[in-house]
């Protein structure tokens, strides 16, 4: 596909994350425009398009993929549909930004990545937080040795939406559950910060009979090389938290809004070294816009910040977490 500036995006589905965050993020980017949206209901697609100011609406995903004026698609469909529509988008010559989790398991993610590779299109998993410059700054602080050797990481991402019984997050066969929905964030962050893959996972979860048996809360231990571990908890039936702490021998880094942060005001994190605390403040940025820009640069021949295979490795960890929680056992990776 020839380079097109700006990158012309199509949205497969009318999910709230697309409306609230990704479409505004693409609009705020340097590189992208939202050219079309598709739903299985034309009325729904037209309503979404009118509300969001999108010029074209389609009543099927196939129709959008057939549009030669679409360069890339964003897929915020329920998790069990990610594989099918990523592969179909790749076969249609569209680059793919797929909402996390990439798939239901590592095998599916591997098929998706291979389909994109064979089609010569770029694939990325939509972890927007990794594109925020504060994470590069945190890695710089760690590499400088200021907080010493890393001894542990703790992450939490919880919210309470349990009363919405019709929510797709509470369909087990659709890939529902807190590990898929929010546990992926601290696990992804630990892998990124440590620059390595885990060795084992041990997870305890509450599988709620009121919510189709999905894990509404999970707490885990993810073991990394060198006796470093991530401890984390994630939940969809708990008070809201969105935090990360990185503990070193000489200090620690605390992120109070680790994964979700407002685009219209500065974000900050604290560095505590030998009892002295300082706050590092980053300028206001839209991390969804930065994600769109990094994606476009990769499409146009630049180096991808996160290779497609990262999604496969991330799903392998989630596979191990779910197996551990269901079997009540430590699972080696």
TrEMBL record:
Keyword terms of this UniProt record: Oxidoreductase
Domain Gfo/Idh/MocA-like oxidoreductase N-terminal: 7-124
Matches recorded under Gene3D superfamilies: Dihydrodipicolinate Reductase, domain 2 (3.30.360.10), NAD(P)-binding Rossmann-like Domain (3.40.50.720)
Pfam families: GFO_IDH_MocA, GFO_IDH_MocA_C3
Domain annotation GFO/IDH/MocA-like oxidoreductase: ranges: 135-254
Family statement drawn from the similarity comment of this UniProt entry: Belongs to the Gfo/Idh/MocA family.
Protein name per Swiss-Prot or TrEMBL: Gfo/Idh/MocA family protein
Species annotation: Paenibacillus thermoaerophilus
């Amino acid at each position: 596909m020839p380079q097109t500036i700006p990158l012309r995006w199509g949205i497969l589905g009318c999910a709230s994350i697309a409306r609230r965050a990704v479409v505004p993020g693409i609009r705020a980017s340097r590189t992208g425009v939202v050219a079309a949206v598709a739903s299985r209901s034309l009325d729904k697609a037209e309503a979404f398009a009118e509300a969001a100011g999108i010029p074209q609406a389609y009543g099927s995903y196939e129709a959008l993929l057939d549009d030669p004026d679409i360069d890339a698609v964003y897929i915020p469909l329920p998790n069990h549909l990610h594989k099918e529509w990523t592969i179909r988008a790749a076969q249609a010559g569209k680059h793919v930004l797929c909402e996390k989790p990439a798939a239901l398991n590592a095998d599916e993610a591997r098929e998706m990545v291979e389909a994109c590779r064979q089609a010569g299109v770029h694939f990325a998993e939509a972890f927007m937080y990794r594109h925020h410059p504060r994470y590069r700054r945190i890695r710089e602080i760690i590499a400088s040795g200021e907080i010493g050797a890393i001894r542990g990481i703790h992450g939490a991402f919880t919210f309470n939406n349990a009363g919405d019984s019709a929510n797709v997050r509470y369909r087990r066969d659709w890939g529902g559950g807190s590990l898929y929905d929010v546990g992926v964030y601290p696990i992804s962050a630990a892998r990124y910060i440590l620059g390595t893959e885990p060795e084992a996972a041990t997870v305890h979860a509450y599988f709620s009979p009121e919510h189709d048996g999905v894990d509404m809360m999970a707490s885990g231990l993810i073991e990394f090389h060198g006796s470093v571990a991530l401890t984390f908890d994630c939940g969809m039936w708990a008070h809201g938290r969105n935090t990360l702490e990185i503990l070193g021998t000489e200090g620690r880094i605390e992120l109070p809004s680790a994964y979700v942060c407002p685009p219209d005001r500065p974000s900050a994190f604290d560095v505590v070294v030998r009892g002295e605390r300082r706050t590092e403040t980053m300028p206001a940025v839209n991390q969804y816009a930065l994600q769109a820009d990094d994606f476009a640069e990769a499409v146009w021949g630049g180096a991808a910040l996160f290779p497609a295979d990262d999604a496969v490795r991330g799903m392998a960890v989630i596979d191990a977490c779910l197996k551990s929680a269901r079997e009540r056992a430590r699972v080696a990776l």
